[in-house]
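Why does residue order matter? Because the sequence determines the fold. Keep that principle in mind as you read this record.
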Amino acid sequence: MKLQYNNSTLEYAVIAVTIAAVLASASTFVMLYGFDRPVLSETLLHAVQAGLLFVFLAEKAVRFYNVVDKRQFLRSNWFEAPLLVILLIVAVGAGRWFALAHRGEAILVAVSAYLVLQIISKVCLSMVTLAASGLNPTRTLIGIFLVLIMAGSGLLLLPRAQADRDAPLSVTDAVFTATSATCVTGLIVRQTGTDFSRMGHVVILTLIQLGGLGIVIFGGVVALVLGQSLNVKESVAMQDLLSAQTLSRIGTMIAFIFGGTLLIEAVGAVLMYPMWASVPGTVASRPEQWFYSIFHAVSAFCNAGFSLNERSLMDFHGHWGVYLVFSPLIIIGGLGFGVLYNICSLSWMRFWRVIRRHSYPAEVFSEPKPTRLQLQSKIVLTASAALIIAGTGLLMLFEHYAPGPEADGRFLTALFQAITARTAGFNTAAIEHFSDAGKLILMVMMFIGGSPGSPAGGIKTVTFVLIVMAVYSTLRRRREVEVFRRSVRLVVVGRAIAVVGLFMTILLATTLGLCITERHSDWALLDLAFEATSAMGTVGLSTGVTPTLTTPGKWLIIAAMLTGRLGPLTLLASLMFTFKPARYDYPSEPLMVG
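Structure:
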């Protein structure tokens, strides 16, 4: 919602002060809780927070005075009144209206909660405004990811985020971990479960959630929750991010993504809860068991592959939770929100159609024609099923390793690795023990990746299908590429070819760079290529190369993970944003191909 102000200069001054207040508030929390001992006096920091509270209140007062439509301003900031009322009740009523052992601590908690909500709301709403600012959208997206990575790196470098104080985290390792979490990759240079404290785990979990769903989408969620409608520019920006067909569905799509994500992850966490007790020594208490469940549910649905277990899921091979909880979460998360929305809306419409037929049989012939699955959904579902089946069969055919005495057989290992290799990065068998043929199959699966609109990387299933169908149409001497009796525009096929070409180019360049930076190691070319493919595909599987990488090698993988998450075509588009399309065509001349 765009508010108009009488004095623009005053509004710019208020914005500057607000930004400074947000940064100062975040800094006070870091100094209070990020170190073993507060950097400054706790009394001083709490006094600063109290002063920042009045700064935010003054900001609201000045804006209310300066705004043109005061009713619209009150509607946009309706949540401020309940927060202030709660804060006032705690400050005045503590020890009077209700008993509290420590009145001062209750007031400090209330002030801290108010500041945290201010930081979250302003940052999220700023992301939506920035995305709709009219600047280069791809550069804006890259900038948001870089800021998120830098913020995560800074938090991971805090002493209280690290479990081992004798071996502190280096800047390179912090950036590597933050990038891997933000880009939902799962490659690690430090053990997530043992080298980071609970605070570090929460930081990594937050980066996974924000990176997997997108902080701009979270901004849209916050805007809708706070009752602020999106203006046209903001709706168009969200439409590009969500690949929605109409602006009228933006609010519904955002609500579906947020609500669906919370529901799926919550159900996954509940179903995972009894799984950790099956291996003695995994968790020590029920709260830790719940945290394990939430962490792995988010990691699986966002296709991140991060695990608090040192051996990923190898100790749980054969457990029903791996195949009935982890696998569905990975598959659903890799389909893409557009496909999930199409499936759910279609299922809902058909459900109500059946209800109406039983309730009002006379109106059967007057019902509109039922909606069908979109072409995108058909391609994604078909390709995903085919890749899982083909990957499972090929791994069973070419692998002759023994997963372990506790394993149920090669089928379960092959099935899970075929599912996780395209997107997630969890593993139930040691990847370094795979044969060269098995590693090559996994590389092909990682190269293809998940589906558009999902956190997964790779060239995407739709791109792969378009390339295959382009070859098939050429062999059949068809003038257009056809999929499910639908023609695909030439510009879309050209975009798919560009994605594959750029992806292969960057992948080869990354592999070549690793051959140079890791030339003193004993790693084979296939292992280095596997590492590069895993980083570009944001998968997270490794043959053991990641922890042994040199510093230049780590930065190469960091660049590969960021490129794979954003997409090579997105990065190229950011460089060519100012290029205008040509309004002329050159004469054609025949060429011999093949």
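The two ends are 56 Å apart (CA to CA).
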